[in-house]
Amino acid sequence: MRRVRKNEGGYVLIMALILMVVVAGYSITLHAVATAGIRSSEFNARKVVANYLAEGGVEAAQKEMQRALADYECVPQECSFDIDGRIIYVTIEQVGTPRTEEDAQGVRTVIQPYLIISTVTYEGTVSSVERVVDAGLTPVFQFAVFYNSDLEILPGPDFTLTGRVHTNGDLYLGSHSTLTIDSDYLRAVGSLYLRRKNDGSLMGGDVNVRVKGDDDFCELEQQDDLLDYGVPSISGFDSDFCGHDVNGDGDTNDPGELAAWVMRSQDLWNGTIKTGEHGLKEVVTPSIQTIKPWVEDDQGNEVKGFYHANAGLIIRGEMVYVGDNNVTGHLPSGTISQKLMYDAREGKDVHVTEIDIVKLNQSGYFPANGLIYAYRLSDTSSEHPNGIRLTNGSELLGPLTVVSPHPVYVWGDYNNTNKKSAAVITDALNILSNAWDDSKGPGNLPSASETTINAAFLTGNQETQPGSYNGGLENLPRFHENWSGVSCNIRGSFVNTFLSEIGQGSWGCGNDVYSPPIRNWDYDLDFNDFNNLPPFTPYVVTITRVVQTNN
């Protein structure tokens, strides 16, 4: 039997106490570590939320910048946004100096850098996002075609279009003959489809697009073209084409196989065609508010709209003003008159304020800054689509932009003698040929004669709905005569950024509405020079991220 020494029991007790202290300390440490971990996890979670809110503030500020710049407003230095029920405050500061960049087609963009800062405190956690962006302002009339919503180019006869084409929506292409897009810039922020939007039908003609950096054109294969070599598709080679994998091995590299839209479209056109599937982003354009005579400011006060406020000459009903001065009595007799004409698309007589450009040229009151703002008083609405008519405009005294919140009717040759830079900005654009004589009435379709117009157009339109076509680009200018076999020659730019609020008559062809012209339309290359743009040309606005820091 082992004998325990006298002091051995005390030693055991001490060791037991030490072990208890160690275990207790270890437990405390584990608890502290666990608590710290929980706190760190909670902090990280709060930080993620704070960063999300700050990022959201910066994104919202970018959109507000685009809208303000497109609508000719000052970019706000401070703004706030409601994001998930929290008010986020953001500052915007112009930094650096503006610069001008030019692309391969000669199109110029003014670039202005901005610094956006959004700082958020969320449950004691602070997150700050600082982003430097480039705001790019490109004159909208440097595009041959620019649409803010879906763009449909679906002509029956042959049609060739030159210049840059862009839509912020979907792009529908087709023809019963041949549609040729002679451009290395064809863009759709949405998707590209080889079918009609209104009923999904296929047109069967050819669509050819220039290959970027080359003189060659490549056809967008129709459904029948693909079927000829055993490739099924919804409507041909477009955004819906998901590729053709014959052996099912997961790639399209084998003989007889075709890559999907995103990759193959770039191989075929070398970058001419880009769509939302390629990451294309929206470009912001002016709203219809800019052409209205009166708008509300931030304080709720009624003020003049942008073009109304800046016009060198204002035509209001039968009265003409330079600033606040009524100069009507100083104009040659007949410079401004009131006429009545029949519009079969609207199905009614419309009253028009007619502006005789020849007499205006002679009056001494041709606008010094090249901007006319013309509107009627209270007799114009969608029920009564009265408007403005320009006549005898073959020669302009100087560069001229005519803006109206109502439909505008351009009667006869316009700006075809000693061509100047010119534009018409309107709720709805209508073209009357040189042969027009106001004799048209219900059931009567007068014959047109060849007419030439050199001007850019920014106009409203209607939206294509199932079973109802808006007329497409080929009918963005509205016609009112029998143009069969007759040329309508236009050199300019075709821009649609809003829906018409006054000229809401549905598109229709034949009967007493119109028959289509030979469309000899082209982009005016003179617009590639900033100095040749029409007065007060609006801008489309892009925002590009340059650098960002998150704290």
Précis, in short:
The protein is of the alpha/beta class and about 550 residues long. Helix content is about 15%, strand content about 35%.
Set down the secondary structure blueprint.
Blueprint lengths: L7 H63 L7 E6 L2 E9 L4 E4 L5 E15 L2 E15 L5 E3 L3 E3 L5 E4 L2 E3 L3 E3 L4 E5 L3 E3 L3 E2 L12 E5 L6 E3 L3 H6 L32 H9 L3 E3 L18 E3 L5 E3 L1 H5 L2 E4 L2 E4 L2 E2 L9 E8 L4 E9 H7 L7 E5 L11 E5 L8 E4 L3 E5 L10 E5 L1 E5 L18 E11 L16 E2 L7 E13 L18 E6 L15 E12 L1
Parallel strand pairs: 6-9, 6-32, 7-10, 8-11, 9-12, 10-13, 11-14, 12-16, 19-24, 23-25, 24-26, 25-27, 26-28, 27-29, 28-30, 29-31, 30-32, 32-33
Antiparallel strand pairs: 1-2, 2-4, 3-4, 4-5, 5-34, 14-15, 17-18, 19-20, 20-21, 22-23
Structure notes:
With 551 residues, the chain is of the alpha/beta class. The chain has 3 domains: 17-139 and 542-550; 143-278, no CATH class; 297-516, no CATH class. The protein is 16% helix and 35% strand. It is built from 5 helices and 34 strands. It has helices spanning 8-70, 223-228, 261-269, 306-310, 357-363, and strands at residues 78-83, 86-94, 99-102, 108-122, 125-139, 145-147, 151-153, 159-162, 165-167, 171-173, 178-182, 186-188, 192-193, 206-210, 217-219, 273-275, 294-296, 302-304, 313-316, 319-322, 325-326, 336-343, 348-356, 371-375, 387-391, 400-403, 407-411, 422-426, 428-432, 451-461, 478-479, 487-499, 518-523, 539-550. Strands 6, 9, 12, 16, 19, 20, 21, 24, 26, 28, 30, 32 and 33 form a 13-stranded mixed β-sheet that branches. Strands 1, 2, 3, 4, 5 and 34 form a 6-stranded antiparallel β-sheet that branches. Strands 22-23-25-27-29-31 form a 6-stranded mixed β-sheet. The longest helix has 63 residues, at 8-70. The radius of gyration is 32 Å and the shape is globular. The relative contact order is 0.12. Mean pLDDT is 91; it is low at 1-6 and 30-34.
